[in-house]
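User: Second chain of the day. Same drill as before.
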Amino acid sequence: MTGQTIRLNSVGNRALAHRWIDIAPPGAVVNIKEANRTNDQNALMWALLSDIARAKPEGRVLPTEIWKCLFMSACGQAVRFEPGLDGEGVVPVGFRSSRLTKAEMSDVIECIIEYGTRHSVQWSEPHQDAA
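Assistant: Same format as last time:
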């Protein structure tokens, strides 16, 4: 048996996963984890970050990538900044929204929406219940 991935989103898939476990060779490894964020969540996050960057709340002129780091940090995600090689500014490292679960990504999106709404950001697309 080669590596197998299955989403446990139905009774049939759960039964199939049980069968795979039953026939797995000795020493096989099973990794069960929450699903990662969706492509729709990712697209919404970048649209919201673009809206924030254009609005320049509190006079902050930052690219979307830095805004993303700031919001991920605000939500408790591990984010680190290192000095740039040219000695000017800092560079965000050690963060990946692609590794967030759906719930974690929802928290980041809600944080962005709350901050932007509080700072009168004009949103380019609807986002109610989108997180």
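The radius of gyration is 20 Å.

User: Great, on to the next one.
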